[in-house]
């Protein structure tokens, strides 16, 4: 099947929209910074873990789009995701803060550590889920109008934006390892703690307020 000019233009818009989300500092970026100090391929593995959650979600939206676009269903999902994701995000922030005084390891961390971090952080990120239920769903609807093959290409292109960004960032951070003193390490972990707690509180409070106003 030959791709149309309109589809190529759509893919270009997908790259631009995806990069605006990727470049925005968030929980996954914070975790990438933390893991990259120990393994140069941390970003690659985190992106793969991110894809483990993201690809099934994209196909779930594709096949369940008729149910998801219902306003009452969407609101219930947003509230649930916000409450659970907010709590998990705050828990991750507390764990990061508790590890701030641990010595910097000179060996590379196990591969599965970064992979699981990508899965865990993505699944717990309410902002990620809400993005897919709003902006992402709009993109899926458009991709769906071109056909299943085009939708699959769209899914891969979107994920590649995450893959390239986190792979490059982690590699650059690892290469600057000689500057990674204990003080710098603690500063980075405190930054990660702030990001995780900040997003967690925001997700939870927003979802809680939505639940209260809905029930009122």
Notes on the protein architecture:
By secondary structure, this protein is mostly helical. The protein has one domain. Helix content is 83%, strand content 0%. The longest helix has 34 residues. The radius of gyration is 18 Å and the shape is flat. The model has no long low-confidence stretch (mean pLDDT 80).
Give a short account of the largest sheet: none
Unreliable stretches: none
Question: How many extended strands?
Answer: 0
Mean pLDDT, all residues: 80
Tertiary shape: flat
Structural class by sheet pairing and helices: mainly alpha
Q: How many structural domains does the protein architecture include?
A: 1
Question: Approximately how much beta-strand content do the residues carry?
Answer: under 5%
Number of helices: 9
Helix content: over 70%
Helix-strand sequence? HHHHHHHHH
Brief synopsis:
By secondary structure, the protein is mainly α.
What's the SSE blueprint?
Blueprint: H1 5-22, H2 27-36, H3 42-63, H4 65-68, H5 71-98, H6 111-124, H7 126-146, H8 148-175, H9 182-215
Helix pairs in contact: 1-8, 2-6, 2-8, 2-9, 3-6, 3-7, 3-8, 5-7, 5-9, 7-8
Keywords:
216 residues, 0% strand, mainly alpha
